[in-house]
Structure formats: C-alpha cells, structure tokens
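Reopening closed ticket. The problem is back. First fold of the pair:
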Amino acid sequence: MRRVLGPALALVLAMLPGPAAAASAWGSPVYGDPPGWCTRYSDMWTASVVTNDPLVVTNPEKETFYGFHPDPGYDDWYGFFYGDFRGRPGDSSGWIKLLHERYPQHYHWNFADNGWAVHGHVKQYIAYYNWTFGGQCGLGRYGFTWAPPYMADQYGWPVVDIYVDAMPPYDPVPRVTDATSTSLTFTWDPVADRGDGAGQDFFEAGIDHYASWVTVGSMRLQSAATVVPRVITQKLIPGDTACAHVQAFDGVGNSSAERVVCGRALSPPPIPAWSVPSRVSADPYPRGLAGFDTWLWLTPSPEPLVAAETYAGVQYAVTATPVGAQWDFGDGSIARYVGSDGFGVAYPAQSSIDHEFQADNRSGYPIRASIAYDVTYRALLGGAWLGPYPMGGITLPAIGLDYQVRQAQPELVATGE
C-alpha cells in the first residue's frame, strides 16, 4: 500500500541523487541517526527536499501515515527531528509521538499543520510502532509492548534531509559605466546569497541567475537571464533616458529587490568662460638691456582649471589642463613650447624662456603669452562620475607685460697712474 506523490514533489525527489550503499546512507557525519534506529521494512530509505518554504508543505511524509492492523493492534507514528527547527540551531527533539491511527483510517502530518518553521538544514526520522508486534527490528516480539527504539517507517522515506533557504540574495546594484551622445552602458557586480539557519544547520541555496532588462520610456528591452553579471549597451538618441533593472535569484527561487539605475545620453557641455590668473614676469626688471638676455616666466605657473556646470539636466565637471604656451616677444619674434618648459621658471633660477632684445624701446616691447589647454569633461550619471571624455583644446591669454629696453652706452673711464 503506497501513497501517491504529487507531481511537483515527485519531480524534486527524482532529480536528487540516490543514497550511498552504506550504513550511514540516511545519516551523516554531522547529523547522526537516533539511538536504536533500524531500517528493516522500507525500501525507500532517504529523500531530500530543497525549498524556500519554512513550513515545508512538500514534506514527503505528509501522507505516509496509515493504520495497518485492526484494534487492538493499532498503530502509532513517531518522529525524531534534528537541526534548526523553530529557530533553535542544533535542536534535537528526541522521539515525539505524532499520530495514533486506527485501522483502516489514514492521516497526514506536516510541519505547516503544527507551525513548525524550518531554518537551514534539518533531518526528519519517521518510525512506526505497533503495540502488538513490538519493535519488529529484532528488538521486540508478539505480545511485548516495549518502549523505543522503534522500527523504521514501513511506507515512505524513513529519513528526509530538508534544506530550507527562505532568505533572498543581497540586492545587486546596477551602475552606468559609459555614456556617449548615442548610447549608455550598464553593468553590476556579483552578489552573494544570504542563506538560512545558523551554525552547522546553515544552508545556502546559492545564486542561480540574474534577471536584467532596460527600459526606455515605456519600452522594455534586452531582457535576459544570466548566471553572471552582464554588460548592457543601449542605443539612444540625444535627450533619451534609459534605465537598467536587475534582480538576483537563488537556487530555490528567492529574489532580491529590483534595483534600478537611470541615465541620459550625453552631449558635451559648453566650454566655461575661463580667465587665466598668470601674468608675464621678467628679469632684469623693470627694464632690460639691449644685447643682453632677458629671462621670462609666468606667475603663477599655470595650473589645471576646473569648472562645475549643469547642462541639459546633467551635472558636469570640466577640466582644462595646461600643455604648453606660445610667446610673442613684441619685437616680431615668436616661440612655441610644449609642456611646462613653456611656462618658464622664476628668478633666481635660470628660466627655460629667454630672449635678447636688440634695440632700445623706451615705450616698452608688448610681451604676450598664450597658454594651450587640453579640455576634458566628466558627467554624473546614476550616482557615479563617468569619464573623462575629450573636448578638444583651447588657448587662453596670460596677462601681458610692456617691457622697456635701454641701449647700453659705453663710457671711457680714466685710471690714475
């Protein structure tokens, strides 16, 4: 006389590996068999249930319990439970009487009926005892009503390993990793499953897959289930906003919260209206001598220029980095420099920029310097700064110097004898 399993439970059990052919096939190094346990009559020793239901409505012993003998040989069913029941890790209940059944009726027992919550990993042992035939595992005989140990379950699975993970995985956090004027790119980092139970009873189903998709307006695009995070690039037109949606699922179907990040296609912002604080300095000062070197430099030496601005609803940080300079010495001579050599060095150090004026100029030579900058921008999208992205180059003038030059006059100096 066998009871029929529901199709869903039968599928779960069919997918699980069979027990090892050993004395501990229904036990384990961590969860040992109860004292006096025997498995004489059942031919289905062990089963495993993996679920996210703490009340375990798929308990395979749910419809096991039948009365086999007419009165007065009625039947009693007992359970021995070990593991994290009711939130108490390592709880061993001892033998508990579950049901008293009268022939020919049959009954069921399930965790949900008793409000027993399962956390992590537990083991359930089921035993049958008939008060006429005793233990029937070589431990009793007809007419003796000995106390436990009891014989094994005659019908069904005497031992059930139950694994419960009712905790969802940690939430994945999508982010924008790149943006252009025509696309946005999203990804996220792997997350862990949280698992259930405590101590030796802890069980973690593990991450099974991620579900992710993109929305643009009311359209849902690029939906996929992947075992690892993926990179999603969505084409856009200027002004479009795209949102990436991600959920993590563990091996028993728990899902994280749906996390969302949004961003817009980027357009380069306007170049800020910068002014340069650097001015032209010279030595000798305030005037030079024709036919002698004049050392020149910029004070202060050019530094990167940074500006924050909001454009088309996006926050930007724009940076101009000095990369060189062009000098016009006011006498028709021009020189171009790359890098910091174009900024000179303040006296008394010898500057990298020097010039020899050949003629007297009492009104002053108009010395001018223009600083070359490379410009980049970064954009704040989805809570993260992206970039830098290039914007080209600009040239900004330093504050010039009108530099007087005198012609040196030779003098005859007499010496005494």
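Second fold of the pair, where the issue appears:
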Amino acid sequence: MNRALLLISHFLIFSSFSLNTNAQKLSSSLSSKEDTLKLLGSKIVNAEFAEQRFRADSHFTRVLVRALQLPYSFDYAFDSLGMISRLYSPDSSFRIFTWQVSKDENVYRRHGAIQMNTNDGSLKLFPLIDRSNLIVNQKDTVSNNEWWIGSIYYKILKNQYNNQCYYTLLGYDEYSRNSTRKRIEILYFNDQQKPVFGAPLFVFNQDSKNSTVQSRFWLEYKKNVAVSIKYDDDLKMIVYDHLISETNEKERPETYIPDGDYEGFKWLNGKWVHMEKPFNFTLEDGQAPIEKPVLESKFPVRKTNKKGN
C-alpha cells in the first residue's frame, strides 16, 4: 500500500513538473512572438508612408495568427501590444482583437479577429473583414464576421434573454478627416456558434406599438472633440453625451459637439431602451417592449474567468 502511494506521489510530481515545463515553453514562445508583434505594431502606427504601414499590418496579421495557433494561447494576454485592443468577454467564452491602419487622414481600415475559448486549447478563430464602405443601411444591417462594420472596441457587456447571450460592444471609428464615430454594436453567436453582428434591440420609444427600432447605434461628431459612450455601473445603463450642431447645421455631423446633457440606454426585457434623461430614470421593469428578439439563424460560447478591459 505504501509502495502504491509512493508511486502515485512520484507520478503527480512528474506530471506537475511536465505541465510547468510545457507552460514555460508556451509562455516563452508567445513572448518572443509578442516582441515581434510590438515592433510591427509600432510601424503600423508610426511608419511615414501608407505602403509601409500596410506592409507592416499584413506581416502583423500573419505573426498574430501563428501565435494564436499555439495550444492554449487564449490565456496569453499580449499586454505589451498597446496599439491593438484586446478584450475578453465577461464570461471568457471569447476574446476579440481590433486595430486600425490609416492610408491617410480620410481613409482608415479596421482589422480584427474573434478567438474562441476551446476546451482542448486548439485555435478557433473568426477573422473580422471590414466592409463598412459597402454596407449602405448600417443602422438596420445584420451581418456576419465577413461583413463587419469595423470599430476599435473598448468595452464588452453581456446580457441574456430567452436563452440567448447578447454581447454589447462599445467602440470607436476614426471614420474621416472631419468626424469620428463612437458605436454601440451587438454581437451574438447563432445555432452554428458563428458570430452575428447587429440585432434589432435598440428601442427609441417606450411605447412598443409606436417604437422605432434599429440594429446598432452610433454617434458621429466633430473631429478631436471628446465624446463619451460608457456603461455606468451604478445606473446599470449605457450613458452617452447628447450632441448638438455648433453651427446649427443638423445635416452636418462633423459640426456636432456635446452640450453638457446626457442620454442613455437601459437593458429591459431583452432590449436596449432609450432613455432621454438617464439621471431621472423612473421606468419600471415590465413597461418596456417585451417582444421576442429576432435572430438571424442563417449567419453567424464557452468558459474560463479572464476579464475584459
């Protein structure tokens, strides 16, 4: 009996040593690739000519994919890559990388990928293909990862309704020479576990019979003006700046600036319901629209506990 216990003890020590050695090798390999990515990222941002920036971006993408192909790369944070956004979902079922490369002051291209958290550590990756310039009706379009309205994401929220998880992404888009956009995007995974962007969850009238509904929301405003879209933990709401045209030209988004007031959205019965005065919110649960959310089954979750940032 003592001999059996001794053998088990030796086996556990050897297994622990083996796992630690493998983890160290993985970390070392990923760290080396991270150093390369950091250098390429600097070129994407700082290279003098557009051709150099796009070449660095192409090389960056290839190196990132090779890094992610290493087993259990999901848990490696790539903390030194400040030029790209790296966000884990609140339930750690996936993480999303997003970044941009500029051709000039008027043309930006967003790139990204969704890495799923797999049980066996293998890579399940969905590339995000920016088709913003080809999507005409962006407020109502529901699409997949190959028809992505590009944004650089800085926050992920999770809500659940009728057994469907919805992830709300807050992001920004440099957009053009004269204006910037901040966007609220919906992401969910369909029955085939493929990503879907957009869902008719933004309601602009609390009366469901006369409500205006759209699939995503954004603000467009004057370049280099500070505009906020953020989630308020105390209010349990998305709160954003109310904008007005500083020249009284409502048709020109590039003239829009904050006026010191705020609007917001509150998650009620499976919808983001618009609140004109979020700091005076009095609506009780049950008064908002309650119809079932529409899912696009023809388009495009899992575990751990890493937190997005």
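Update: turned out to be a display glitch only; the data is intact. Helices lie at 2-46, 50-68. The chain has two helices and 16 strands. Please close again.
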